[in-house]
Amino acid sequence: MNQQTSPVKSPSTHEQDILLVKLPGA
Predict the structure, then answer these.
(1) Geometric angle at alpha carbon 25, from 21 and 26, rounded to 5°
(2) Where is this region: Disordered (predicted)?
């Protein structure tokens, strides 16, 4: 999952971690 459109270097894996934390039940 390479997001070249993102000017900032942020791997999708990091975004997934944030989503997991936001989910009620983590």
Answers:
(1) 35
(2) 1-26
